[in-house]
Design the sequence.
């Protein structure tokens, strides 16, 4: 399925592996290119950074898994979950997951919006924030300065709505703010 590798000695060809029936479907080159070229076109995340990963599909979700030399041995295992979910279908659209954007978003060169904590709180409260971006409507990567890639926002008519998981972001903020509180024993 995956035709070329930069370091053939480090990877196992996957086209001849007999996968256990519990494994999701291995994605073909065309579908893989379609998904990763979207990341490159929209966000500037280079498609080639995913060369070392296998991509699988189950129902309306796509996952990646590092292509390692011992994948043939693992292919016979029964699975309940595999790798990191990177895309899922939302209605007629395919959306990158928060985890994928947090993991690879630092490689983005476009469709990225830096926000401050005040903007973040507005987004988490369900409000939209203005964004002066020269972009078509669609997803944008939200970052909190140089500290974090938070995830995605949805740009519509010059305003961004949160696509961030509220509970997770609030937990990160509480943890971060509590780390700045001096210890009472000091």
Sequence:
């Amino acid at each position: 399925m995956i035709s070329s590798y930069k370091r053939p000695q480090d990877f196992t060809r996957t086209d001849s592996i007999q996968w256990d029936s519990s494994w999701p479907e291995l994605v073909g080159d065309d579908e893989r290119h379609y998904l990763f070229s979207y990341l490159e076109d929209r966000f500037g995340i280079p498609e080639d950074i995913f060369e070392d990963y296998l991509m699988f599909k189950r129902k309306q979700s796509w996952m990646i898994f590092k292509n390692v030399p011992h994948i043939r041995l693992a292919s016979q295992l029964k699975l309940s979950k595999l790798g990191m979910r990177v895309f899922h279908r939302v209605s007629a659209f395919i959306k990158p997951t928060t985890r994928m954007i947090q993991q690879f978003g630092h490689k983005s060169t476009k469709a990225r919006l830096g926000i401050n904590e005040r903007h973040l709180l507005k987004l988490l409260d369900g409000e939209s924030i203005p964004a002066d971006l020269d972009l078509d409507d669609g997803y944008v990567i939200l970052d909190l300065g140089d500290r974090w890639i938070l995830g995605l926002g949805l740009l519509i008519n010059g305003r961004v709505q949160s696509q961030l998981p509220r509970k997770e972001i609030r937990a990160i903020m509480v943890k971060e703010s509590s780390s700045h509180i001096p210890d009472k024993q000091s």
